[in-house]
């Protein structure tokens, strides 16, 4: 995939909106004020970034556990000649949001989200039955140290940052949402309109569906969800390959139980590591810590992994590089037939 040409404003916009899109009546005007440019310039930049494929969408990434759903990372060991066939079958499930080929014996990795552990298991059982492959890993998160996809487009950031608070998904309390709130959540999972007042557009859509809401309600509700971490991130999803970040690997590590918390927080302090989790080990898979590492080359990824190894004192990880992306989408929460 060819790298997109980015202007200075494009880079500044991307640095901001990938993690903290302003939840306000005129978000692009708020950005423009910070950048010292016109609102129209920011809107033109975002529209250009979307049309060139750099931005997949702008919207909410919800915490599935806060909405009463269960999520897990899975991997299946597929014979080389059957990878495309099996990956296509897995991608058919609407509960599968991400599906990748990675360099390992466990070569197809996918994220699965459903209403209950029983539904997760039922889907895995169906995959095993339909593929004839029962060598499947089910790796739900035990501790979540970090989820923050935050590429450095300006080159102005430091090497280490403060690690966010650790959470345990199994202990997360789900929120109760009204009909209106569920309807708003469905819209926020989609792609926000790039207009002067995108939250007004959301409110109009809800009003047309019979909900008695307005722009102020949509903004307030979204802000409350962001502050309460019901929305993990409200911002732009980036196609990193289009911006020069052409290499990424899932680093799988092993730490003793008494060091997991300490080591996980160290890993989370590296900005190049976007996802840091503790997950259960298995007889065929001894790893218990995971870091998604991004770089402009494999050499960059190896360098970051080595710096993490030095900082933690762990043995070198297995680096499972992404080979192919079969599916990457957002879960459609509160949709018909998603359970």
Backbone structural class: alpha+beta
Strand content: 15-25%
Task: Work out the radius of gyration.
Answer: 20 Å
What is the CA-CA span between the terminal residues? 35 Å
Order of strands, main sheet, comes to: 5-2-4-3-11-8-10-9-6
Q: Could you say which overall geometry the principal axes of the C-alpha atoms support?
A: globular
In helices, the fraction of residues equals: 25-40%
Overall residue-averaged pLDDT value: 91
Treating each run of at least 4 consecutive H or I residues as one helix, how many helices?
Answer: 10
For the sheet with most strands, the description reads: 9 strands, antiparallel
Q: Low-confidence parts, pLDDT < 50 over ≥5 residues? A: none
* SSE pattern: HHHEEHEEHEEHHHEEHEEHE
Strand element count:
11
Compile the SSE list and pairings:
Elements: H1 8-17, H2 27-35, H3 39-51, E1 55-62, E2 70-76, H4 83-91, E3 96-102, E4 108-114, H5 117-131, E5 136-139, E6 143-147, H6 179-188, H7 198-208, H8 215-227, E7 231-238, E8 247-253, H9 260-268, E9 273-278, E10 289-295, H10 298-312, E11 318-328
Antiparallel strand pairs: 1-7, 2-4, 2-5, 3-4, 3-11, 6-9, 8-10, 8-11, 9-10
Helix pairs in contact: 1-3, 2-3, 7-8
């Amino acid at each position: 995939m060819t790298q997109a040409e980015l202007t200075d404003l494009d880079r500044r916009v991307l640095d901001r909106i990938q993690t903290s899109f302003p939840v306000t009546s005129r978000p692009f005007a708020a950005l423009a004020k910070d950048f010292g440019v016109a609102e129209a310039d920011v809107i033109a930049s975002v529209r250009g970034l979307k049309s060139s494929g750099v931005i997949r969408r702008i919207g909410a990434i919800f915490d599935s556990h806060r909405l009463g759903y269960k999520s897990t990372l899975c991997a299946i060991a597929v014979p080389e000649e059957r990878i495309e066939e099996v990956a296509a079958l897995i991608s058919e499930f609407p509960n599968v949001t991400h599906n990748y080929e990675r360099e390992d014996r466990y070569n197809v990795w996918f994220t699965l989200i459903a209403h209950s552990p029983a539904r997760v298991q039922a889907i895995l059982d169906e995959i095993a039955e339909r593929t004839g492959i029962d060598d499947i890993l089910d790796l739900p998160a035990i501790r979540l140290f970090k989820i923050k996809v935050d590429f450095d487009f300006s080159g102005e950031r430091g090497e280490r940052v403060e690690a966010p608070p650790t959470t345990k998904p199994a202990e997360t309390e789900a929120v109760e949402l009204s009909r209106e709130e569920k309807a708003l959540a469905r819209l926020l999972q989609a792609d926000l309109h790039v207009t002067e007042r995108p939250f007004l557009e959301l409110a109009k859509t809800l009003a047309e569906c019979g909900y008695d809401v307005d722009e102020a309600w949509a903004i307030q509700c979204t802000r409350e969800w962001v502050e309460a971490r019901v929305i993990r991130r409200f911002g732009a999803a980036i196609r990193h390959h289009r911006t020069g970040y052409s290499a990424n690997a899932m680093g799988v590590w092993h730490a003793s139980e008494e060091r997991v918390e300490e080591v996980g927080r160290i890993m989370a302090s590296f900005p190049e590591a976007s996802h840091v989790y503790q997950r259960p080990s298995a007889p065929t898979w001894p790893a218990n810590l995971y870091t998604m590492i991004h770089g402009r080359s494999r050499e960059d990824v190896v360098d970051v992994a080595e710096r993490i190894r030095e900082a933690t004192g762990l043995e070198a990880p297995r680096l499972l590089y992404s080979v192919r992306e079969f599916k990457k989408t957002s879960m459609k929460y509160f949709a018909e037939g998603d359970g």
